[in-house]
Amino acid sequence: MKTKQITLNDIAQRLNVSSVTVSKALRGHPDISKETTKLVKAVANELGYSPNFMARNLSARKSNTIGVVVPKIAHHFFSSIIEHIYDYAFENNYEIILTVSQEDSEREKKHIQTLLSMRVDGIILSITQDTKDFEIFKTAMNRGVPFVFMDRIPELRNCNTVTVDDKGGAYKIIEHAINLGYKKIAHFAGNQKINIGRERALGYKLALIDNGIEVNPDWTVEGDFGERSGYESFMKLYRQNNLPDLIFAVTYPVALGVYNAAREVGIRIPDGIDLVCFGNSQVQSFLSPPLSCVNQPTDQLAVKSMELLFDNIDNKEEFEPKQIILDTNLILRGTCIKYNRM
Amino acid sequence: MKTKQITLNDIAQRLNVSSVTVSKALRGHPDISKETTKLVKAVANELGYSPNFMARNLSARKSNTIGVVVPKIAHHFFSSIIEHIYDYAFENNYEIILTVSQEDSEREKKHIQTLLSMRVDGIILSITQDTKDFEIFKTAMNRGVPFVFMDRIPELRNCNTVTVDDKGGAYKIIEHAINLGYKKIAHFAGNQKINIGRERALGYKLALIDNGIEVNPDWTVEGDFGERSGYESFMKLYRQNNLPDLIFAVTYPVALGVYNAAREVGIRIPDGIDLVCFGNSQVQSFLSPPLSCVNQPTDQLAVKSMELLFDNIDNKEEFEPKQIILDTNLILRGTCIKYNRM
DNA sequence: TTGAAAGCGCTAACAG
DNA sequence: CTGTTAGCGCTTTCAA
């Protein structure tokens, strides 16, 4: 019993007018008299008319839709950004097509192709850890589709980016620790193929150097951004009997891995070893001890990305790519608030 | 410099064939010779052809897209389900249009209308806390759009639902606690207007009754599903000097609120008061003490919902609505593992 | 104020 | 194997 979809024509016939009249009336076009407009709307309502998005957009050559590609979603950082993106889109009567690459660059590429097929008006993209091939981005941009890269960005000149000041944030927290008295500071660094991993590691080093502390290469432990990685990095140093006084974890999950590992070997945080990380989440204040961190403004990441994208969409002809860098702030809780050594 | 989008015709002209040939070739239709197919594909590639999703779907009268409406996204339960939904869709070459109602039933309604406009092939929906008006669901279903209600479902006969055995799960954990020796057990109940709130409260009561424990009405504290609610419920009982030995929180955030409140008034978990909740998350094992809970199979919620939806889509004519109820299991960690009183 | 004609880009049905 | 014809449902001229 597939009920036929109601079309403009159905309404038109009922009223003995043309479908054009109905189309205009429904959109409140001034061409049409108040009376017919009212009539049309009434019938449309009665029949349960629902405009066909595809037909409308095909004809109008505009989708009122923006595409989003993120590497993960079950992660506070991204889900929070996405929620803000949805809010922003909703207020501006835009639809969001969200796709998730699951850190798989092939999948990412496919998603972009799909979004292009859908003729989205623009794309907001946070790349995977190992996206190496930027061709698809270039061709898409050349084809006139506005792009905004958010947080995790490719090494590409002349494109829109909205990032967090990763280097500055890392610098800030390390300097804070140094001021507390810490000197033996390790960094559990993320993947160095991607900007956020590199920048945070850079900020860490810079802060040490600027404060006259020698950089111990053993204390920059490379890994990825996950819990497992934090656990393993800790265990590596532990086995080498080379634990520092403070660990700066590149992400919140990495810090969780450290909690786990430390608990396992019976070292207490923050007395036995202190810990701090980049990135906030809903639950850090419930950890024991509550975890201090560098906070990223997820709402701003969403809003600025959307603003920039809309700006680009509205001024396609003479648009100059912009790079926006957002500031971070420290949230100090139970860790890294005093010097615990000696 | 808006680059014109490449169409079938552009490719056709280049090759001096008709657009139909190109269309077929691109889709690997057996009509077309290997040779032309190859040629067509080459040119399409060279020109960077990207099929127009709208045109294709308008013409084919099928969108290969399914709509999803959830109340929140920055919440482990939902983001986890959504990730699984995306995976499933991706594997089956379907697109997902995800919309977020933010617990606002008006917004929910608008989203459904949008999805209908987009002519999605089906909708998976988890309703808001205070969705009272089910008309839109009914009309949509009458119009032949397959629906699956997931986890949070309306009181509607004869529709597809995939839920967790909330009552059974609550019963299970309470019985576990009783076996441990607990008798003074409170329930920080969620919103009773929605099935999950009601069912969990029901399971709680049933378990008490079945085990010969009197149900103290003061110990069912109604609230909502958020952290704030957990905090306030605790404080209420605390002020009344009426704290139980164990609290069963309706959700994980509510339990977090209890941690907060307990810490604030200097009562220790689990010795001072014990705690357990419905729903798992990535971080409960990091709480102190690690929080035991009733685990919901988010992957199954996603998969079963998708399967059911596809089943309905494929057999529209004679489809009998199904109700699927998924089992829960207990995850025992640092709370509610032994009787701490006296 | 209304409508007829044309077309958005694609596909399905049918001929050749 | 290839192409012609007809339309999907809507919007945008442009004429009445």
Can you tell me about this structure?
The structure is a homodimer of 342-residue chains. With 342 residues, chain A is of the alpha/beta class. Chain A has three domains: 8-51, lambda repressor-like DNA-binding domains (434 Repressor (Amino-terminal Domain)); 65-164 and 297-324, Response regulator (Rossmann fold, 3-Layer(aba) Sandwich), CATH 3.40.50.2300; 166-296, Rossmann fold (3-Layer(aba) Sandwich). Chain A contains twelve helices and twelve strands. Chain A has helices at 8-15, 19-26, 34-47, 53-60, 76-91, 105-117, 135-142, 166-180, 195-210, 227-239, 252-265, 298-314; strands at 65-70, 95-100, 122-125, 147-150, 161-164, 185-189, 220-222, 246-249, 274-278, 293-295, 323-326, 329-331. In chain A, strand 1, helix 5 (76-91) and strand 2 (95-100) form a beta-alpha-beta unit. In chain A, helix 1 (8-15) packs across helix 3, helix 5 (76-91) crosses helix 12 (298-314) and helix 8 (166-180) runs parallel beside helix 9. Chain A is elongated, with a radius of gyration of 26 Å. Chain A starts with 7 loop residues before the first helix and ends in an 11-residue tail after the last strand. At the A-B interface, helix 4, helix 5, strand 2, helix 6 and helix 11 of A face helix 4, helix 5, strand 2, helix 6 and helix 11 of B. The structure holds a DNA duplex (16 and 16 nucleotides).
Strand content of chain A: 5-15%
CATH architecture of the largest domain in chain A: 3-Layer(aba) Sandwich
Structural class computed from helices and strand pairing of chain A: alpha/beta
Series of H and E elements of chain A: HHHHEHEHEHEEHEHEHEHEEHEE
User: In this structure, how is the largest beta sheet of chain A organized?
Assistant: 6 strands, parallel
User: Might you state the CATH topology name of the largest domain in chain A?
Assistant: Rossmann fold
Strand order of the largest sheet of chain A: 2-1-3-4-5-11
Number of strands of chain A: 12
The CATH class of the largest domain in chain A, by name, is Alpha Beta
Low-pLDDT runs of chain A:
none
Molecular shape of chain A: elongated
> Helix proportion of residues of chain A, in percent?
40-55%
Q: Kindly report how far apart the N and C termini of chain A lie.
A: 79 Å
- How many helices of chain A in DSSP terms? 12
For this structure, what is the CATH homologous superfamily of the largest domain in chain A?
A: Response regulator
